[in-house]
Amino acid sequence: MTDAETTTHGASERTALPVEETADLVSRISDNVERVIVGHTDAIEHILITLFARGHLLLEDVPGVGKTMLARSIARSIDCSFKRVQFTPDLLPSDVTGVNVFDQKTREFEFQPGPVFGNVVLGDEINRAPPKTQSALLEAMEESQVTVDGTTHPLPNPFTVIATQNDVELSRTYELPIAEIDRFMKKLRLGYPNHADETEMLGRVANRHPIETLEAVATTEDVLRARETVSDVEVSEPIRSYVSKLATYTRDNAELGVSPRGSIALVRAAQARAVLDAREYVVPDDVQTELPSVWAHRIRPATGSETGETVAQAALEAVAVE
Amino acid sequence: MSRRTFRGGALAGIALLLFALTSELYHITDVVGVGVSTTYILVAAGTVLAATVVARLLRPRAAFVLTLLILLGGFAAYFFSLPAGQRAVFSLDRVLADVVALLTGLSVLRLAQADVWALAATPAPVFFTWYLALRRRYVAAATVGGATLGLLVLTGDAGPLTTLAGVVGVAGAVALGTLEARGGVSAQLDTFAIVVAAMIIASASLSVVPGGAAQPLLPDTNTPTSEQNLVQSNDQVNIEGSIRLSPKVRFSVESAEPRYWRTGVYDRYTGSGWVRSESDTRAYDGRLESGPGDRRELTQRVTARTQLESLPAAADPVELRGSPANDALVTEQGTLRVGGSLRENESYTVVSELPQYTPEQLRRSGDDYPNDVSGRYLQLPDSTSDRLRERTANVTEGEENAYDKAVAIEEHLESTKEYSLTVEEPSGDVADTFLFEMEAGYCTYYASTMAVMLRSEGIPARMVTGYTPGQRVSQNEWVVRGLNAHAWVEVYFPEVGWVQFDPTPSSPRQSAEDVRLESARQSNESGVDTGNSSTGEWTPTPTDTPAETDANTTTTSTSADIDGPQAQQSGANASVPGGAVSGLGENQTFSPTTNTSGGTGEGDSGDGLPSRESIGVGLAALVGLAAGARRTGVSTRAYRSVWVRVQGRRQTPERDTERAFERLEYLLSRQYRPRRPGETPRRYLRSLSRLGLDERALSVGEAYERARYGSGVSRDEADSAIETVDALVRRSTPVLGRFRS
């Protein structure tokens, strides 16, 4: 989550897109991505919500289910730069952020931006890199800027990180601590496609991969304006109170509940969800739809029989809608 | 409902139980002891404090041992407080007999040194009960405290209110204690309230044990009255509220002259009645001692006309002949008691020695009372009011001797109080209430008050019950009915003995009885007449000089004093004791007599506001009903059914829309199902729309979302939502809805 980003780039003079147009924009992007990615309609929606709510996304999955392809499709659809970092145990922080290189001609150091300088950054298998390198990326996410040798370099806008975690080969990995995971707005699993989807997918890629012919349906300007739209969505007092009570419930019923940062993330995601529905205000349904993907990874359950998901679900059932 | 609330409630229950227990024992010390009641309060409070401290320190086993020690110490203290003479005859058999007597209705008030007994018996149960309650062992606490109170119930000392308070306390402690341990909810509290209300109402309106102290609090119009209770129990007289008269013939007496036929003597005034103190009742074994002074013998032959539980005789009986003599008992007060009961038509002969005196003699008799008389017959509760003492002092001001004081008190009562059988039972001290707050009463009120006033002046006096002479049916035979039952006063004069005074005005009393007897005859009640009694009064011819009714001819001149009625009657009516046809027949009974004052047709002053008990029971009923309504949801549903139909005053469009949706939601909860807590309005309506929900409801839902979460709704949108809900509500009301739409 990036509060700082808002301040860095300012609540600029950019005019917000009307909600109807924004909703239309989202469905255009979504449709476009689905030309490449079969199934996973919900996941695409979640990623777009993260994008418009200025958040970052953590994908936890086995290799080969199309994580990279998904991220590339989205980047291509909104006509913005796409960067990919493969995290390995020997990756250094400067490999992510970039380094100052001495230019022989100008006799000056020149900053060589690292792969983090992209609109959509895919951090692949982030848990394979040592914590120092992980934190370089996480700091960039938090601050929307990178500081190398005392010089601060702002990251491009929009800036969204899609990190993936491989949860099958756990040897020689550095699991992300909860405090770090908290910085991702959402955590998703794609999972294997079902039979029909896989059949369909195989048919599409058999000859020529559709990603190569995918065309942009939106501009980065559109995305930035849509972000303004999301920020303008009204969050009424009953909704704020409802979210607070949900958070309190997780704090009372788990070893580690949801932080205030988690509550903010939920409200932002709910705002984006309202925009998807072409609505200018958040209703409890938005909160309920967003809660599992925004909160489950932030909760450490009290007992082994529970998971973050079950606690989140219990909160939804137990806390009365206001 | 927090556990703390339940614990507070459970402790309050135990406290109520202890309060009921100690208030009963306190009453005993108040009545019997002199200055002991203050000590008693200190002892009780100290015990509770000690238990509070010990509950933090000692384990239950140690506390139990401590309780046993306290109990033993208490009984040792009681034992050594007894007079040496009684201690000498102490034996295990005697203790067992006493225990059995207590458990079968011997009032603690009648024990020797009852005040010390109460003091000694208090600490152990109070200590252990409160200790257990503080240790959260409410059931055990209720058992200990309840058993102790139960003992007082068996002895007849605990009245219905006290018993009820104790039972409610026990129920509360056990119920709330359980709720505390298991974690209760308010619905269970409602159930508890219903049960307690039912307990109070049931015990207030039903009486399992007729007579005794266990009377229902509420008037019970069906219980028959019987003056036999007065005569048969002979151990105590409770002052009742309104009473009625029983016209049945009880016995007939063959005697040379009419007397008051005495059956019971009471020495201990309890504030609410009288008891006969008990320590040494022996079997009748030959001629009795009569009082001091000159005596004249009178032989009477009494024949029971119904089963009889007493031995009516003129004071003071000295010799008894006939079958009842075999098992008759002699009380400490020198009266005869029947061992079992007399069968119908069983008869006995009793010889009495009547005191001989003149007023002058009584005036001169002084105040040199024997110790046993002044020790026993000057007793008054510590709580006797100062105003009663002051009033008595005023009334007797200027009178030098006991006799004149007694006459002054008697005249004061006769002249200031009206005679009525219909009175509201006083809640406080009977004498005080009668003297200062009541305008009318009947014989027990007059007699009690007079005896108490005399005692406050240091004159030994006692309450006496029995029968007035009755209807004279021949030269020397009198028929006595239930309505002749009466109470009067005996005052002790040195060198003379007990002299009877009757402060009850006789003429209104007799007319009340005549009316009752007449109506009984007209309605053909059985047992009203026997043999020749229906033919009316036997009137002696002028030549017949009936036996002088008074002890001595000289007393007839004092028309309104000694031997009250007889003196009055014979004095005013020369030789015709006609007024004695039907003496006063109030049954000062212990059965739940009530406002239906039979055929007396006398003063109806007791009606008006319901008594405090009735109000209390009514309140309990209300609480129970309210809890029941809440428990079953009737009240909520009734309120809601109105609520759902009324939109109410228009406010902001947002508020109106929200209200409209709340009504819709309630309507749907009745038609389909309630919305679950975690269910959003939108999801709720969608899931219902699959069950055939009216489409219009969805539009209300949308308006509600805008009003509550969005930027608001316009007036028109709000009105349209209200209209929609109104329409839906109308449609759901079967009859009215079709009629209107």
UniProtKB/TrEMBL annotation, chain A:
Residues 53-194 form the AAA+ ATPase domain. Pfam families: AAA_3, AAA_lid_2. GO terms for molecular function: ATP binding; ATP hydrolysis activity. InterPro entries: AAA+_ATPase, ATPase_AAA-3, CbbQ/NirQ/NorQ/GpvN, ChlI/MoxR_AAA_lid, P-loop_NTPase. This is ATPase.
TrEMBL record, chain B:
It comes from the Archaea. Residues 504-612 are annotated as: Disordered. Coiled coil: none annotated. The chain crosses the membrane at residues 35-55, 62-80, 116-133, 138-155, 161-179, 191-213. Residues 539-561 have a biased composition (Low complexity). Keywords: Membrane, Transmembrane, Transmembrane helix. Residues 435-505 form the Transglutaminase-like domain. It holds the Pfam family TgpA_N. SUPFAM superfamilies: Cysteine proteinases (SSF54001). SMART domains: TGc. Signal peptide: none annotated. The keyword Transmembrane helix applies. The keyword Transmembrane helix applies. Residues 520-538 have a biased composition (Polar residues). InterPro entries: Bact_TGase-like (IPR052901), Papain-like_cys_pep_sf (IPR038765), TgpA-like_C (IPR025403), TgpA_N (IPR021878), Transglutaminase-like (IPR002931). PANTHER family: PROTEIN-GLUTAMINE GAMMA-GLUTAMYLTRANSFERASE (PTHR42736:SF1). This is Transglutaminase. It comes from Haloprofundus marisrubri.
